[in-house]
Prior knowledge:
alpha+beta, Rieske Iron-sulfur Protein, CATH 3.90.380.10, 4-stranded antiparallel β-sheet, 20 strands, binds fe (ii) ion
Amino acid sequence: MSSKVILIKPYSAYERQPAPAEDADLTHVERGSPAGELMRRYWQPVALSSEVGELPIKVRMFGETLVLFRAKNGQLGLLEPHCSHRGTSLEFGICEENGLRCCYHGWLFGVDGTILETPGDPPESTLRHSLCHGAYPVHEYKGLVFGYFGPPAAKPEFPIYDSFEHPGDRLVPYYITYPCNWLQVHENVMDPAHAVFLHTRISFSHFADAWGELPEMDFVPTPTGMIYVTTRRWGDNVWVRSNDILLPNLAQVGHVWEDGATPKAFGRVAITRWTTPVDDTTCRIIGWRHFHPDADPRGLADESQCGPESVDFFGQNGDRPYEERQRIPGDYDAQVSQRPIAVHALENLTRCDRGVAMLRQLIRRQMRRMAEGEAPGVSAVRSGGLIPTYTHDTVIQVPPREDKQDDAALLREIGKGITDIVVKGPQHEQADRHERVRALIHAYAESRRETVA
Ligand code: FES
Ligand SMILES: [Fe+2]
């Protein structure tokens, strides 16, 4: 880790020492790096199913270029790009019934890297049995293609979180490429203060005016990672919002256009997104926008805008003219401009950044476990059943206390009360968790009203 560098006098830029290096352990992802090896232990999305058609496509993960293809029998393969014969790229290969055929001399590769044919060889040749082409396992789920890039013996079951199967949700896949390191994009999800400034006060309200109210903030560990808890006063309402980090690099975000105006209990996920490492200085947000009438009360969602390099809310890619991005910056501009790899030794973290610091600690803890030869852990994967997640928006009616300090204390108390129900409730093993959590929140809201009255 680099040591801290601070300047303490006005006009002192000249005294700046050469910039310290980034925190390589947390940020670097190429082969053998601690963060890269950690993420390799989890299934990672590499493409949208809709992109894998008649032709193979090139994908990049962890600094490796690979070729993804769909054999005519429907199976997907993820192969090293250079043909095991003499290196021609398999992106020019032909998809056949049970594999991919190199264009140069016709070797045929199965989806698992098995060499099925070396047609220029005499029939009695056994060469193909003594070799295998490099391949990674693939799993397709709800319009996304996932790869597993870790040691075969440690391959986990594909985890199904409750939000993936939420009744009535339509999951629409999308991705956006960011020309910067993965961690600064991922940790933005644990930085609720930026919603107040970047998304509301700095230029215009990207989502709704209530986001500009500085909330009471807390950060709470969960069985799968952590959440932030923001609790805001909006008129007579108290709006409690949490976003999930599912370690190491999956995150979930609540309603995009929530405005705190209407009471609701345990409104669920609007975005499920992995921040995948393409290489040290490029990453992709890839996942689903969830479409559900409850998640879009003002009718602002637009499925047609979700797909390759696009999603249906403001400021998520670099497509806008530069001057407009300067005048009305969005998430993309704020995060990419932190440097190709943000340098932690140059930061000055504040109380607002407790979530970012906690996320880094949790990732370090996983890396330590791996260094000690253990599984990275924390995932509450259970065979059968769904894994609970904790992202939600809850709005309850509790009028303000006269004194502002007293009201801040009330907000913290309500934030904690609701979070205890969502995270610690004994209902996690139950199929009807949503209904049970909602019922408990309704009862809690009722009790608060009685307390106030
Ligand atoms: S280089 Fe691929 S078959 Fe010869
Ligand atoms: Fe944001």
